[in-house]
Amino acid sequence: MPVSRLRFESLPHAIFLQRVSGPQGAASLEARLGQGAFLALRLLDLLAADRQPVSDEAFRYQWMATDRFCRELRAAATEGAHVHGIAESAADSHRLGDVRLMAPALFAYAHFLEDELRLEEAVDVLTTLLVVVGSRLSPADTVAARLRFARVHRKLNRFDEAEVAYTEAGDLATAAGDRHSALLSRIGLANSILGRGNLAEARRRLEEVRVDANAAGEQDAEARAEHGIAVALHQMGQAPQAIPHAWRAYELYEDDDSRVRGLTDVGIMLLGLGNHADAERALTEVVRRGAPEVATNAMIELMHCASFRRDRVGFARWRERCAARLDDMPPNILTDFYFKQGIGQARFGHFQKAEELMRRALETAAAHRLHEFEFRIERIVGGLADCEIAMARESQLATEPVVQTAELREVSASLAQLSQ
Hints:
By secondary structure, the chain is mostly helical. It has three domains: 1-128, no CATH class; 138-248, Alpha Horseshoe (Serine Threonine Protein Phosphatase 5, Tetratricopeptide repeat), CATH 1.25.40.10; 282-420, Serine Threonine Protein Phosphatase 5, Tetratricopeptide repeat (Alpha Horseshoe), CATH 1.25.40. The chain has helices at residues 14-17, 29-45, 56-74, 78-96, 103-115, 119-133, 139-155, 159-175, 179-196, 199-216, 219-235, 239-252, 256-272, 276-289, 292-308, 312-323, 331-347, 351-367, 371-382, 387-399, 406-418.
């Protein structure tokens, strides 16, 4: 729904209570974290501008109960620290009479949930930010909240809601003279169009943003536009044209996390072209430089790369390194690990083992509502019986000459220097 018409459901934050009925049980840490988030956010609701002020005694009673529950979670998990931080921010906001003090904790928790792919919960937290703090947010925070709200909805494939929020954010940013955020809203709209499948229109819009960002000296926005163009071209089946744009994004990004993310896509696109040597250079650099989650993702791609080359030793080595991080993998990466391990086993002719791993990947994807993964896995599982023919064809592709252009040779030369 449009941000301007946001309203709480009859039981606000009930999404967090769904964890209680999860497979780990009501007494698990996961369930208690969900209960803690519910309690902390309900405490914040007492400070909403559109409700009658609560008495100091009533607030203190609810705060003490919430703090007692959430304090136990603080040292148990990263999420526990976020949840307790929200409860503390509510106490500070009530004591000082300033609900804006809640904004940093809510932003941080929403970002954490988004990274963990708990997107429905992230929407709930951002809704709380926009409704409870509302008009008392600073102009910059208002724009940032709407941009993040839009992005999470886009990741949920709720493109109508995303586009309304991106448009609202862009209008507010333009009115405030925030050129960078206005460009980000246009990039977000283009990415939403990309998600709908209109690749040509998305690319056209991103090209316009790239030109405008370059003219305005907005390097970060230009990098994001380049990255988006690369994704659009790659989805259009034009990997040789996409890779130079992804590399240009890598060069333009100013923060390490974004640079590593761009380099990851360069590696994946090169692997798709059959250029496993350059793909391995890029992905090995990501393992060296990336944060744990990004590095794990790159390791999975390197395992995938080794199976593509029919390198049993390399496949086993990367599989073992990935397995050592199994307990720390979020659902999307865990699904991808089982999925690509299954593909690897099929490439080596172990079809029963491949099917077992694919089923495990499918179960993980279904449990966490990763629908795109479910579709991809089901399609491959359904064709495993005919997989030997496809694998024979892929083996032939692995030995065919790699597509090369002048721009791709430049990227290859740059990657060679990067790994020295």
